[in-house]
Amino acid sequence: MTTNPVRITQEGARSAAADALIIGVTQGTDGPVPASGAEDVDAALGNTLAATLSALGATGRQDELTKISSGGATAAPLIVAVGLGKEDQGGERARLESLRRAAGSAVRAVNGGKTRSIALSLPAGDAAETEAVALGALLGRYSFTRYRTTDADGARTADSPSLTVLSGAAGADEAVRRARALADGMALVRDLVNTSPSQLYPETFAAEAARVADGAGLTIEVLDHQALADGGYGGLTGVGQGSVHPPRLVRLAYQHPDARKTVVFAGKGITFDSGGLSLKPPKGMEAMKSDMGGAAAVLGALQAIAALKPQVNVVGYLPMAENMPGGRAQRPSDVITIFGGKTVEVLNTDAEGRLVLADALARSAADTPDLIIDVATLTGAQLVALGPRIAGVMASTDELATAVADAARQAGEQAWPMPLPEELRKGLDSTVADIANVAGERWGGMLVAGLFLKEFVPERARWAHVDIAGPAFHEGEPYGYTPKGGTGAAVRMLVQVATDVADGRL
Ligand code: BES
Ligand code: MN
Ligand code: ZN
Questions:
Q1: End-to-end alpha carbon distance in the chain
Q2: pLDDT tens sequence across 120-163
Q3: pLDDT digits (tens, 9 = 90+) for 156-215
Q4: Are 58 and 374 within 8 A, CB to CB?
Q5: Residues ≥6 apart with Cβ < 8 Å to 481
Q6: Which ligand 1 atom sits closest to the C-alpha of 275?
Q7: Is 289 a residue of the active site?
Q8: By the 8 A CB rule, do 376 and 444 touch?
Q9: Cβ atoms 130, 177 nearer than 8 A
Q10: Which ligand is nearest to the CA of 468?
Q11: Which of 87, 127, 267, 464 has the greatest number of beta carbons closer than 10 A?
């Protein structure tokens, strides 16, 4: 999907030439209250807005949508009032997320059909609010139409409508530029996750990474199957050997001339996870095209970072393989050798993500990183522990887990720190190899996976592991700026981490 430009203007809402004009409404004690940005529309309607909204049953609840015909009072024929919830609820972060969600919900509601242009006059009093409105709108406009020949009404699928954000805030242009970089990175991730796994496999995924690298000015190195075998990347070759599509390891690099620090991002890139010979049941496989969501997030984040240019070096590793049960597939009880020499007894071929990540983490020692973050759709246990929307963050220290989870939340993503309890490590003891890839007991599965990865982290490195099994893929109805399918999870978090390291905050 290509994103049309989002325009920024200071003009009055009533004269905004658009098919639909989006305004905000908050939940007052005595009913709906038009939000800042709606004053001009209210005046154009003879100050009847609150009464009209009230009569239509609007309350101002978060994401509630009320459509009003402007009757010619504003240049836009359709006014869409979107709920922002109660005013002064929670702090700055909550307010910005409320704006993103409202903008996303409203744009989603009018997107498609005959709407060619959308203007948003939501509260955008400063740069942060302007960015939130623009980002929510851009993400809400996203749709994945590659495989559709017609839309729901049987019409040919159309291009996405133009977006105009009304804001007079200082720094509004820069805010919209940031929003675009993040939205483009997330749209890339959504597209890659939503792509049929028959078309996205390691070779094509690596080609896609090369295309992105070329456009963004990132350097790229791709290790093909032979190079992986020669280099001793036993995790990638082991997981990939049951598939007709051989594995790849992609290394991307963004460099800033004045950088003082290097961050490594590594993302799990299983283009389809059947479980291998430890085959998943049919239901468990349905969402497994999303098992490359971590690698896609690293790619999307690097694209955004290349556009935003923080003063830091960033290296991205995308270990890619397809986990299939073909005749040459690895067997439960096979012993493999990870890059760097440690051996692993593969007792369950469905615990494959940790094997390809182990190769990438061990390899990253060569970059002497100041901080390593891996992101992975790693365990069903993450969903059990935190539900489908909250990522689990584990790290070399509890302080770092808290700091990384906080960076994610600062960027508008849900994440929570989790421990790596040492007593669970002995469950991974193997009778024949250095370590087994699964524990006998299932308790704390997300943490056990983290403890496994920890063994492959370069000595003394600061490292955090982010399990996005749930957040990467949304199976329910769309909400806010989140569509069904690929979500773009972890992109904003990684960009935030890179900027925080650049600015000495992390
Ligand atoms: N890709 C899955 C994890 C997953 C499950 C992601 C559900 C998204 C939704 C991973 O490779 C996997 O199969 N993990 C196993 C590990 C187990 C064998 C220790 C799991 O969680 O069941
Ligand atoms: Mn698996
Ligand atoms: Zn997997």
A1: 34
A2: 999 999 999 999 999 999 999 999 999 998 876 666 667 889 99
A3: 667 889 999 999 999 999 999 999 999 999 999 999 999 999 999 999 999 999 999 999
A4: no
A5: 100, 101, 103, 104, 105, 108, 135, 136, 139, 140
A6: 13
A7: no
A8: no
A9: no
A10: 1
A11: 267
